């Protein structure tokens, strides 16, 4: 039977008398190799907030290839080999509790996977972002090998069984975790929704001059919906719509490349460094987000931070993240006419309203607020 999640701000605890010592496992984050680079961005931002708090002491568990923080007040325990290859990653994930033995109050796994071969120290907390591997197994079974699906599903099951506390990034993601537990008859640990922040909050005061274009973060991953968006765009183009320039950032698969040859006023950019990406999205009149499943909806938060409204799929977690005034940007996954209505709204909304929506989202999801929620959850986990 599943347990309903709660948001940590519902029941805050009084300030701790002494700092809590937390070990943070980061050897499984190799952003130059990982698909999930957003998790490393989240981890970096969160650790930056943790490092300036008086109520925490931090020890990071890293490898010679993984992400690591550079603040001098963060202690480091290093695994003496690389983890950006399969063998090193599997070994480190399995045995790091034996290699790194800091005397701490709590272990934290921001990527959301518990050690595979040994029980994690108690208490242990993981931020589990979604159950997208199960979604792919159900909807896109040819996207990975059966062996890969078994591995990641079993690791998700083990993490839910072994963590003493689970954090997640939206009520929508919490629902995914509950359904996963019900499916595999797992009794879950306590689940708390802490949400997620972004380093893009540092550019909220920048004003970008708008171009006559809209932007999409292209992906070959089928759930991201890039080809679906291109087909929508081709349909609107065939109707004689006077469309702004469509700018894609990222790579297309073969089907997407074929559709793109039929589009007018279309530009494709390679993946961009952070500052260029912020400028590109900040200058766009809308961000188009046709993803059919998201753990949180970070692209929408970041787009509003740089003053760009977002069109996104109805029924995803993005609607939970976007302020109520931005929900006119929702559209049905399979309805080009609904997409066109959402798109027209995004082109019509004025800058003061966009900025007001972004400010309201910042009030809920600033990095400081997120860090406070997570630390409150840590203290709850220790007190259980």
TrEMBL record:
Gene3D superfamilies: Glycogen Phosphorylase B. Pfam families: Glycos_transf_1 (PF00534). One of its GO terms (molecular function) is glycosyltransferase activity. Keywords: Transferase. The keyword rRNA-binding does not apply. The keyword Transferase applies. This is Glycosyl transferases group 1. It comes from Rubripirellula tenax.
């Amino acid at each position: 039977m599943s347990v309903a999640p709660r948001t940590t701000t519902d029941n805050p605890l009084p300030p701790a008398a002494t700092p809590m010592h937390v070990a943070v496992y980061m050897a499984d984050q190799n952003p130059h190799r990982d698909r999930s680079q957003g998790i490393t961005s989240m981890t970096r931002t969160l650790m930056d907030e943790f490092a300036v708090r008086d109520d925490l002491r931090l020890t990071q568990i890293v490898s010679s290839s993984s992400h690591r923080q550079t603040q001098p007040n963060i202690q480091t325990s290093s695994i003496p080999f690389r983890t950006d290859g399969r063998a090193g990653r599997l070994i480190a994930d399995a045995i790091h509790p034996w290699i790194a033995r800091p005397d701490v109050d709590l272990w934290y796994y921001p990527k959301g996977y518990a050690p595979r071969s040994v029980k994690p120290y108690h208490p242990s907390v993981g931020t589990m972002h979604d159950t997208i591997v199960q979604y792919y197994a159900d909807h896109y079974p040819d996207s990975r090998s059966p062996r890969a699906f078994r591995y990641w599903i079993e690791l998700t099951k083990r993490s839910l069984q072994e963590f003493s506390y689970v954090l997640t990034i939206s009520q929508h993601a919490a629902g995914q975790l509950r359904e996963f537990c019900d499916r595999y008859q797992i009794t879950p640990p306590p689940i708390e929704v802490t949400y997620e922040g972004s380093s893009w909050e540092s550019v909220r005061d920048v004003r970008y001059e708008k171009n006559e274009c809209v932007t999409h973060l292209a992906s070959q991953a089928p759930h991201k919906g890039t080809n679906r968006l291109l087909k929508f765009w081709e349909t609107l183009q065939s109707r004689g719509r006077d469309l702004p320039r469509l700018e894609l950032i990222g790579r297309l698969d073969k089907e997407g490349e074929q559709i793109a040859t039929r589009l007018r006023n279309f530009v494709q950019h390679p993946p961009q460094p952070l500052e260029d990406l912020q400028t590109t999205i900040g200058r766009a009149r809308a961000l188009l987000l046709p993803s059919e499943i998201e753990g949180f909806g970070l692209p929408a938060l970041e787009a509003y931070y740089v003053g760009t409204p977002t069109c996104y799929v109805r029924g995803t977690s993005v609607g939970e993240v976007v302020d109520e005034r931005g929900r006119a940007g929702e559209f049905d996954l399979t309805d080009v006419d609904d997409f066109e209505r959402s798109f027209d709204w995004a082109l019509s909304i004025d800058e003061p309203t966009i900025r007001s929506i972004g400010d309201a989202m910042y009030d809920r999801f600033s990095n400081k607020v997120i860090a406070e929620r997570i630390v409150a959850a840590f203290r709850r986990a220790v007190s259980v």
